[in-house]
What we know:
There is one protein chain. This protein has helices at residues 69-75, 78-99, 105-131, 138-159, 167-189, 194-200, 205-212, and strands at residues 3-11, 16-21, 28-31, 45-53, 59-66. The protein is of the alpha+beta class. It folds into 2 domains: 3-73, CATH 2.40.50.140; 77-212, no CATH class. Strands 3-2-1-4-5 form a 5-stranded antiparallel β-sheet. The radius of gyration is 24 Å and the shape is elongated. Mean pLDDT is 86; it is low at 209-213.
Amino acid sequence: MNQKGVLTTWNDAKGFGFITPEGGGERVFAHIRSFAGRGRPVSNRKVVYRVVRDDQGRPRAGGFQYAGAARIGANVAPGVWVAGTFVLGFFAILAGLLYLHYLPVSILAAYGVVSLLLFVMYWIDKRAAQRGAQRTAEKTLHIFELCCGWPGALLAQQIFRHKTRKGSYQFVFWLAVLANLGALGWLLVAPGAISWRQQLGFDLSTLIQPLIW
């Protein structure tokens, strides 16, 4: 059963501290591995936790996290807002081009559908990582990112805190984003892509060609 208390002390360098129960009593040991919130714990914050026992039978906090308004603020990391703003801005640009008839609905739909699919794939992979189950291959995720799914991947990474700390993965991810945006830009304005644009029934290059050529 969850209990309430205050994280009265916290040694961030060592990754542990102690929780004082709300109703008083003996302090409970808390380790960073048991922290269920985002970021790092901070002392003198109200928390909810459950009491578990270690191998020697000593009480310790299991799955502790901030309580009340502090929990809401801590669970929405700054990266979520940045990713959300970036993705929203990107789709707003696509929607504007669609409204002006400079973009076919199929491209906007491709980004929306594949992003949603990849968002779900990230969630499934995160759950698998937590359970120690079979994971989704990274190259599979990268292929979907390259094929218009990177907006969903960017949001999923921040919301699920998944794949954000692996430098090699992030490097390939952003390469996929740049490659996808480069391909989109080529399709929209490059002279060599005019036959593709004609088949899809749009041609943004007629609007901006005088500005760049």
